[in-house]
Design a protein that fits this description.
278 residues; eight-stranded antiparallel sheet; globular
């Protein structure tokens, strides 16, 4: 009986080590009413954790938007990629009146196990901006990465000191190094909103930001990602979502876990057979 119990514990241990795979679902499922939520991608290669710390995993804000419900987590879908998550919605649209805007912030934790996370790519899905005459449309996204620690506070707006690069140590409570990547596309004069929104210098910024982590070699990364859509004086800005993709230095670390579990199960089965025949 003890042998059967041990075999059962081994099977459960394998399942817990591997974790449940991430699935496409509303963001509200991942936010999980503020409770801890974890899933894996790449056959268990990468673990993604929401509400891993005391910080909220999501915050949304709309200002004079034509659709105030667009920032609700129930209206945003988390779409699973091949080592990556996209946060998609048909309601990411701003094109109303003199000024309208919306912003979304998502916070989560990446754990590559024994395998370093070498690259993080921030991008938009189906991005569109237009001036529509004398107006301005702006879509901007930012990714903050804490390497060697965790964030303890959230930003109250966009990071303006550096668009792409190193922020240093101690920013937003991170005890390790903080990196920032910015992606932005605009149409029309930005001067109208630059001072009001406290935008970073967007010279050379494109519709994606590739943050290379090879020199830091982190296996764990705390992530804060933000997007903001702004329209002024009849301009428009929209996208289908903002997305991330990740690269691990070793693509299939989970295979070692399954190999170990398989060996343990095989050994347990052999012991059971031996005991049954003795």
């Amino acid at each position: 009986m003890n042998y059967l119990k041990s075999a059962g514990m081994l099977i459960v241990g394998c399942a817990l080590a591997h974790g449940a795979p991430c699935v496409t679902a509303p963001l509200s499922s991942y936010v999980n009413n503020g409770n801890f939520f974890s899933c894996t991608e790449g056959n268990g290669a990468l673990t993604i954790q929401f509400n891993q710390s005391t910080l909220p995993s999501y915050a949304g804000l709309s200002l004079l938007s034509g659709n105030n419900s667009s920032v609700l987590p129930a209206n945003i879908n988390v779409v699973v990629g091949n080592l990556g998550l996209a946060f998609d919605s048909n309601d990411f649209v701003e094109n109303t009146g003199l000024l309208s805007s919306q912003a979304e912030l998502v916070q989560f934790f990446l754990d590559g196990g024994a395998n370093p996370i070498s690259d993080v790519l921030l991008s938009f899905d189906s991005l569109s901006v237009a001036a529509n005459g004398l107006g301005t449309g702006l879509a901007i996204g930012q990714e903050l990465l804490c390497l060697g620690g965790s964030f303890t506070t959230l930003p109250t707006g966009l990071v303006t000191s550096v668009a792409n690069g190193v922020l240093g140590t101690g920013n937003f409570g991170c005890s390790g190094t903080v990196l920032v990547g910015t992606a932005a596309v605009s149409s029309g004069p930005l001067g109208v909103i630059t001072s009001a929104l406290a935008l970073p210098n967007l010279s050379g910024v494109t519709d994606h930001a590739d943050i290379l982590l090879g020199s830091y070699n982190p296996t764990q990364v705390d992530v804060i990602k933000m997007q903001a859509l702004v329209s002024v004086t009849g301009g428009s800005a929209s996208d289908d979502g903002f997305a991330n993709s990740y690269t691990l230095a070793t693509p299939e670390p989970a295979s070692a876990t399954f190999l170990l579990c398989g060996c343990l199960l095989f050994g347990t089965a052999a012991i059971l057979r031996r005991r049954a025949t003795s």
